[in-house]
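Recall the central idea of this unit: under ordinary conditions, the amino acid sequence of a chain determines the structure it adopts. In this exercise we apply that idea directly, starting from the sequence alone.
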Amino acid sequence: IEYKQATFPLKISSADLGEFLFEVVLTSKKNVNIPSINFKTSLGTDTSKKFTFQNFLKKPTTFAVKIERMEQTSPEIASSSQLEFFVESPNVQAQPATDDLGTTNTINVRFEPSAIATSKALLTVSHPEAGEFKAYLIGIATQPLPKGPFKVTSKGHTIEFKNPFNEATEFEIKADAPCFALNTKPTTRIE
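Accordingly, the structure predicted from this sequence is:
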């Protein structure tokens, strides 16, 4: 996509008023309106949304995908080097345009929080010839939600658990009813 200026003459004629000559100047500029994609999920879970962009090139095009943390991110998140937003690949292959409207392409963006806080990042999808597409990513993490109920048989039941934090953390494991016994230590460190 070229960002440039073009000039052309415009002549307007009227039988009653005569002829008027104008010089029309057209200027193409980068889009300064950046859309937002909002996410909301509880700590320990994730959620995904799609980002859509157009490819106007008449050939298959590989766009670079980059996510950068924004300064307004909550202090709980900003101290970590790990992002809370993920894409499947650092590149996305876009289909060639078949007309002047281009082809619509999508990227799946996943938000997996590591703290109860607000995370902000900037998604950039770019190609030197095809242009640049951006979106603000805003993720809100809420308190963890209880899971279950789980059907426990006489053989027991395994409950999958994942550490949502960016560092190894010690978790207390317990059942709230005395009729259930755990076959693990009451305190477990999970990476």
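The helical segments are 75-78.
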